[in-house]
Amino acid sequence: MNTTVQKVVEYVFDKILSPADIKSSDDYPEAICSFASQIAAGEQIITAEKRGISSIFDMLNVRQGEKTFGNILSYDDKKRVFIRRKPDTENSEKSTLCDVDDIKKKLSEIDGISRKFAFLKQNAADIPCTKSGELSLYAYSKLRTAFASALALYYEENGYDKKDNISGENSLVLYTADFSGIQNFIYTIINEKALKTLRAKSFFIELVMAQLTSEIIDCFGLTEANVLYSGGGHCYMLLPAVNGYKEKLDHLHDMLNQWSMENFSNSLSVVWETQECSPDDFSNKTDKAYKNLFSGLSAKMARKKLRKYSPAEIIFMNKTGKSADGKRECKICGASSEKVSSGKENICEWCYTFREMSEVIMDREQYFAVLKDPSEKAVPFFSYNGKAYFSYGNNEEIYEQIKNDNIIRIFCKNEEPSGPIGQYPDIHIIDVCDYSDNNMLEEMVKESEGIKRLGVLRMDVDNLGSTFISGFNIKDKNGNITDESYVNIGRTAALSSQLTGFFKNNLTHILERNNYHISVLYAGGDDVFLVGSWDNVIDAGIEIIKEFKDLTGGKLSASGGIGIYTAKYPVARFSAETELLEACSKKNPDKDSVTLFSNDGSQTYSWQEFSEKVIGEKLELLKQFIKGDSQKGNSFLYKLLEYLRGIPSNEENKGEKINIARAAYLLGKMCDELSGNKESRKQFSEKVFDWITSDSDTDRKQLITAINIFVYQERRMK
């Protein structure tokens, strides 16, 4: 860490639990810290007495005159989840008091900024520090540190004068990076041990991004607070606009892309861009400055993705094709290299690493390290200095590397390491949802009710880009913006943190609570990809949406796709197909939908319609009437499905409707032959016939999906 940054950080942490004590000052660095506080908070700073932050989701898409506050978010540090509740009552007030003195005492005893932030995340994530109450002390302290550090470096180079126009000067740089080719990289596998390998490669993307942001932090002498967001192969960082910043970034990305081309051909690359900006841009003090900052950066990224390789990189790729004399071809990824060894079953060193890493990826006692020099299990990695190696191991193995002074940094999942490596200064925690009922697809399929099939769910949040850019604007009843004063970096950071927390921590709790036979392949800032027994996947999808809407108060929605496959179906294909199902849901006018089985839109529903009408009404009726007579009932239902699919929609030419008559006859026959009392059979027949002949196609469409699910539940075939 740069010594100037160190001085600023110490000052910021000295006032960490008394943010209102940071007064305006003309003295450096106090002036910088004071100004950083104003940018981070965006409003009046308070010293809280009670826990519970105002729900950031209440601030989204507000109409003029609407009430914006009321719901409170409390943090459960054991489950690492936020829970939405109503404002405190007298009986519950005692449990929400802040023990500020205790937190301050413990914080002063912790060494290292990473550990201080980890402590604040656990203990101050629901302590409000602004008048409106939606920004937590933890989130605020990170933002304040980020701005103070970047500004301090800029003014260290350019000289600080109290008369300077600090707020309007382009002293900052907003940096973003995006990995291209992630899907091609992750899904290039063989089905043997597919699930474990998928999880290992998915986590490796998080590691690569963590290495990239860590190297940038070290290049500039900053702290982890300057990473505004990181997840899913994307990141945003706040940097100082110092001389040579572009050259530093250019060099590091050259090192990364060179490493990627040498090891993964051109399947994985990074595109990055920057935008110089002023502190005022983050506070939205000029017309649409905040929106223009992010939309302008996105436009630059879009242009750069059209020409993401330099001439030198293109020449290099042309020289290193997949077929070359004297090289073996990896049977998994197809790469050609001298390092493809017959002793490793004709697989390259990276595919071998992913396969071996997949065996220990779920072990919380396994750690991931960047090394200075090669060692056992180490493979080439990238760094600013051009030479590094990636490895993993248990506490004792990593500690041995520490003793040999061979460690650059250590990464771990979800919590700090215990044992001898716990005190190493450069440890980075990567939050991941690593819930897994079983590492074998075949074993989860065996747990399915009825037919033994794999369910696959892909889901992501609707309209998230526009929500981040303009979701905090106040609008009139016609949707016109009337007030942009609520838009600032603090609220954006709070929203990002809440969404990331839901899809990494709340999701884990949901799956654990129900003991679902599911494994999460990826869950990031706004999306989910999971596999498991097909019936559990459907149930989990409904419950995830229910809890998401409960947390957000219905201000945000998500759309998804659910496919059903055999356990041996190629991973790349079911990934691509469920992505198409998800895209089909996004085409629904209001989104907030799920598509099952086919991307033709014939089985696309809002989540509420699917839960209440398909599952809660029609499937429930089928279970009540046919469950005890499923063998005979299934044959009737297959025939009924044939007739239902043959009935033209009300939007089409009326045409021949003989299938309605056939369905009526079949229903009558079903009621004669199936068990149950006469009155219940009559009610069943009449209800189903009403759905078939409804003026709307909706009931018939819902019935088709319900029958499909029912026969899957009742089938005993493998």
**Count of structural domains:** 5
**CATH 2nd-level architecture of the largest domain:** 2-Layer Sandwich
Q: What structural class should be given to the helix and strand makeup?
A: alpha+beta
For the largest beta sheet, what order do the strands appear in spatially? Answer: 18-19-15-20-21-22
- Unreliable residue runs: 89-95
- Average pLDDT reading: 82
| Main sheet record | 6 strands, mixed
Give the class-level CATH name of the largest domain. Alpha Beta
CATH topology annotation of the largest domain: Alpha-Beta Plaits
Shape: globular
**Rg measurement, Å:** 28 Å
| Relative helix content | 40-55%
What does this structure look like?
It is a single chain. The chain is of the alpha+beta class and 718 residues long. It has 5 domains: 3-158, no CATH class; 172-321, Alpha-Beta Plaits, CATH 3.30.70; 363-432, no CATH class; 441-601, Reverse transcriptase/Diguanylate cyclase domain (Alpha-Beta Plaits), CATH 3.30.70; 612-714, no CATH class. It is built from 23 helices and 22 strands. The strands form 6 sheets. The chain has a 6-stranded mixed beta sheet, with helices on both faces. The longest helix is centred in the N-terminal third of the chain and has 27 residues, at 194-220. The protein is globular, with a radius of gyration of 28 Å. The termini are far apart. Mean pLDDT is 82; it is low at 89-95.
